[in-house]
Predict the structure.
Amino acid sequence: MLVKVVVLTGAGISAESGLATFRDADGLWQGHHVDNVATPEAFHRDPATVHRFYDDRRRELRAVAPNAAHLALARLEQVLGDELLVVTQNVDDLHERAGSRRVVHMHGELLSALCDSCQGRFAWDDDLGDGPACPGCGNDTLRPDVVWFGEMPYDLDLIERALVRSDLFVAIGTSGAVYPAAGFVRMATRAGAKTLELNLDSSETSHLFDDARQGPAGKLVPEWVADVQALSR
Ligand code: APR
């Protein structure tokens, strides 16, 4: 019995790999103000500070590895194939490094650069702070390919199509503080899907889920995937 599953992940799934979340006690938004590093206005006002923030995170990413939760989702893709879609709010590449192929980065990617002049997008794993020339148009107008507050997330049509045809929606490691992602549980519920939350603590949307389990993703996700695998045999 194959079910259509949409999995939404947030910063919590990468916490056990050593990457900071945003809103936890030691989160990124404790050390940086959103208005200084995560808005288009901040980038035009002070690009050096914005570049330093993302260049540091890009370098940090090289030093970490996928954890048991990422690896379990990659195993689940082996079982469910095209019936599984991972929608991530994360800009890290840990899902792909774990082996997942069907991943949508709705908030962009650290390992990608976007040109403010030609709108070209380029795989990028180096600093952007030195103002490198755009491989497409040659201008020094490359920015991190990350969706900032006030900007439209990527692939919303594709995500909504998957949600309305889903049988099961699972949210992992997200606080439910940011829309449109925090609204996906309602969209899935309206479409008749079952909903499950796997999170360290209760989130702003836990009450909207049919089942909400608390604990570290590195433990809860492999357990849940083993259950699905057992059901799919
Ligand atoms: N396992 C499971 N959940 C965890 C773990 C863990 N090991 N560690 C933390 N969490 C949970 C926290 O309890 C919290 O609910 O992960 C959630 C992280 O929440 P946020 O820091 O708000 O991150 P996220 O929900 O991904 O943020 C959404 O906001 O800042 C913007 O664009 C940014 O994509 C981001 C969006």
Observations:
- DSSP finds nine helices and nine strands in the chain.
- The mean pLDDT is 96.
- The longest helix spans residues 47-62.
